[in-house]
Write a structure and sequence with these properties.
alpha/beta, TIM Barrel, 2 domains, two-stranded parallel ribbon, 16 helices, 9 strands, about 40% helix, globular
Length: about 425
């Protein structure tokens, strides 16, 4: 099969995996004339976004879309009627270098269907990274998908060459994974996550211990590990999804949990929904995830209501504030950082700017624009040097309506 026909098939097959942002790794480049590539931002094929908002680009492909497993939600399952292709190790290496030299990419995201065995597949994936690093001195970003059942020596080798490793937990509940992916074992997935955490902790300890001697410590996935959960394929609520994410962050110190809205696939099982969930649901889960990671919220306080779902028409922090109006209005010139982080419209950088500014002067309404804070969202919840919201506004049942998108008149379809 022609190389570029393989690329067409295997790049398309990889699009369902969302966990490919190149954030958090060490900075490397080849400006000294040695090696090739860098982890600096660029532009290219697969557009992903780092936590600081910058756009990054990766060559995102599967080594093969042939697979021994028959996961019902996966377009590449063994029973799926799709075109199959497989790269050799040398072909993936060549494509990565060729695309980098054309300034299309800044790194590689490589996954694969399971062929022959977990060890054989993982060995092939690791071989790509090893050749890029050792034979071609590639210094760009590499993210490898880890096979849970693979031998520990292969996992260790993957960490030496990759910037980030990831293992997809796939479903928020063990019962769902058993139903939709009977060949996969959630305990094996979590065991491998635990092994990765131990190796990451060991690498961090070695780095700290060797700083004084200036010796270079052994390298192991400096950008950490991540995972992905499919949203909307099963009946799991947003509360269940966020509780699972909180557990994963706490137990395995994951860098990111990615949420991927289920996409209906050809010839799918009757056990799967016929339509995709609203894409905004995925967006709200990411916002809620941000609240847990950077704003001090617990998973248990983000979702309200017996249905256990996040509202789709307003963001989760605003929804929390509307449920806890007794905590507002908040005096911006006196409140703690933890309190300020809970104000709608206040981001982490804005809060840091507020704290720095109020040391020198009283913050007023006119200062909000300079601090990049949306007035319309924040003013009902805060007290400033020249502003105090009406008590009736916070108590009013119409306050929530101010933030919901206006209704639109639907046209006639022809």
């Amino acid at each position: 099969m022609d190389l570029y026909r393989k690329l067409e098939i295997l790049a398309d097959a990889a699009k369902y995996d969302a966990s490919c942002a190149s954030s958090g790794t060490e900075q490397r480049d080849s400006s000294d004339g040695k090696g090739l590539g860098s982890t600096a931002p660029g532009m290219g094929i697969c557009h992903s976004y780092a936590p600081d908002g910058r756009c990054i680009s990766l060559l995102k492909v599967l080594l093969t879309n042939a697979c021994n497993y028959d996961c019902l939600y996966c377009v590449n399952r063994t029973s799926s009627n799709v075109p199959r292709a497989r790269f050799t190790v040398e072909e993936v290496v060549k494509l990565t270098l060729d695309f980098y030299r054309r300034n299309y990419i800044e790194g590689l995201f490589l996954s694969s269907g399971i062929i022959k065995s977990a060890d054989y597949t993982m060995e092939q994936v690791v071989s790509v990274a090893r050749k890029l690093r050792e034979e071609h001195h590639f210094r760009g970003y590499i993210h490898l998908k880890t096979i849970p059942e693979a031998d520990d020596a292969l996992i260790a080798a993957a960490g030496r060459y990759a910037d980030r490793l990831s293992i997809n937990i796939e479903m928020p509940e063990e019962t769902s994974l058993k139903q939709f992916a009977p060949e996969k074992d959630v305990r094996a997935i979590r065991r491998t996550m635990g092994r990765l955490r131990l190796k990451l902790d060991e690498a961090q300890e070695n780095t700290q211990a060797k700083t004084a001697t200036r010796a270079k410590p052994p390298r192991f996935a400096p950008a950490g590990q991540s995972t992905q959960m499919i949203v909307g394929a099963d009946s799991a609520t947003d509360r269940t999804i966020l509780n699972t994410s909180a557990n994963l962050y706490g137990a395995y110190r994951l860098k990111r949990v990615y949420y991927s809205a289920f996409s209906p696939i050809p010839d799918s099982s009757r056990a799967l929904p016929l339509t995709a969930p609203p894409l905004v649901r995925e967006h709200r889960l990411y916002q809620a995830d941000w609240l847990m990671r950077f704003y001090g919220f617990d998973a248990s306080e983000i979702v309200d209501g017996s249905a256990g779902m996040l509202p789709l028409d307003i963001d989760p922090k605003l929804a929390w504030a509307l449920r806890h109006r007794d905590r507002f209005p908040l005096d911006v010139n006196r409140a703690s950082r933890e309190e300020l982080l809970r104000v709608p419209g206040f981001g982490t950088k804005a809060v840091d700017r507020i704290i720095a500014t109020r040391r020198l002067a009283t913050i007023r309404v006119a200062d909000l624009s300079r601090l990049h804070i949306p007035k319309s969202k924040a003013l009902p919840f805060i007290v400033l040097g020249d502003h105090r919201p009406s008590p009736h506004l916070l108590e009013s049942g119409r306050l929530a309506e101010r933030f919901r998108p206006p209704a639109k008149q639907l046209g006639f379809g022809f």
